[in-house]
Amino acid sequence: MQILQPPSWAKPKGYSNGIGAKGRMIFVSGLVGWDANGQFPQPDSFVAQAELALKNIVAVLAEGHAKPEHIVRMTWYVVDKHEYLQSAKQLGALYREIIGRHFPAMTAVQVVALMEDRARLEIEVTAVVPE
Predict the structure, then answer these.
(1) How confident is the model over 48-69, as pLDDT tens digits?
(2) How much is the pTM?
(3) Are 29 and 117 a contacting pair, CB within 8 Å?
């Protein structure tokens, strides 16, 4: 895996501008922050849902014999960008705990709604496992 960073650009915080990789690709659907039984945490919170969504991603990757460090692309869909931004410090700590200090190419997008009414966010990833 190669991080693609033009030398004259400021280094991004918490993501990479680009990643180059060769290997077996794994595509993980957008996952929301619910448990294995499809239940959202009580009480609802953006951070609690983010924790479950990231753990769900790691579980799906494991099924494909992949690890968090194989993630090359991550897209966050959030229903409230202010909620996302206000949670940045907590999200950063949670991310490092679950994913580690691996920062793929990443996009965050505010959307009007998600298919699951109680979902505050949905995250999808692409991973590349070296052959």
Answers:
(1) 999 999 999 999 999 999 999 9
(2) 0.92
(3) no
Give residue 24's Cα distance to chain centre: 19
- For the segment 11-23, what is each residue's pLDDT rounded down to a tens digit? 998 899 999 999 9
Q: What domains sit in the chain, N to C, each tagged with a CATH number? A: 18-129 (3.30.1330.40)
If we measure between CA atoms, which residue out of 51, 37, 24 comes closest to residue 123? 51
pLDDT digits (tens, 9 = 90+) for 69-114: 999 999 999 999 999 999 999 999 999 999 999 999 999 999 999 9
Q: How far apart are CA 47 and CA 93, in angstroms?
A: 11
Question: Environment class of residue 41 by beta-carbon count within 10 Å: exposed (0-12), middle (13-18) or buried (19+)?
Answer: middle
